[in-house]
Amino acid sequence: MKKTLLIAFISFSLFVSRAQKSDALKSFKPDTLIFTAVEHYPEFPGGVSEFYRYLSKDINYSLSDKKQGYQASFLFDFIVEKDGSISTVKELRRIPNTDIGKLLIKRIKESPKWKPAIQEGIPVRYRCNLPLHF
């Protein structure tokens, strides 16, 4: 009997603790918060490899560029909103200065809706940093 009561008490304590965390998250107005670490990260439809395939579509990176050892490196920052849409796309770094970055920004902005990030069972805004190398 004591063992059953102890298990019930521990289970109840964990449930109350979990409920309090969810209430605390709701009180922070998730519309204004931007997370950088969450329980479930946002996901592009089809996964990461499909996202890279989507981004590289229509980008002219010629064979002569590859032979000459031409490389391009980018770092983008954007927010996956609670509804899965993309907002606030910024190019943080571009080496060398090429027009490919402008095309990539456009592709990220026009991205299909993602599966949003989830924290405490609630969809939240999530900041992504995306390094790309060609």
Descriptive report:
Strands 1, 2, 3, 4 and 5 form a 5-stranded mixed beta sheet that branches. Helices cover 37% and strands 26% of the residues. It starts with a helix and ends with a strand. Residues 1-20 have low confidence and may be disordered. By secondary structure, it is of the alpha+beta class.
In short:
By secondary structure, this protein is an alpha+beta fold.
Identify the notable features of this structure and list them briefly.
134 residues, alpha+beta, TolA/TonB C-terminal domain, 2 domains, five-stranded mixed sheet, 37% helix, disordered N terminus
Distance between the termini: 66 Å
CATH class of the largest domain: Alpha Beta
What percent of residues adopt helix (DSSP H or I)? 25-40%
**N-to-C SSE string, H for helix and E for strand:** HEHHEEHEE
Q: Low-confidence parts, pLDDT < 50 over ≥5 residues?
A: 1-20
**Basic shape:** elongated
What is the second-level CATH architecture of the largest domain? 2-Layer Sandwich
**Beta-strand content bin:** 25-35%
Radius of gyration, in angstroms, nearest whole number? 21 Å
Count, helices? 4
**How many separate domains?**
2
Total number of beta strands = 5
Q: Determine the structural class based on helices, strands and strand pairing.
A: alpha+beta
Question: Average pLDDT value?
Answer: 77
CATH topology of the largest domain: TolA/TonB C-terminal domain
The biggest sheet amounts to:
5 strands, mixed
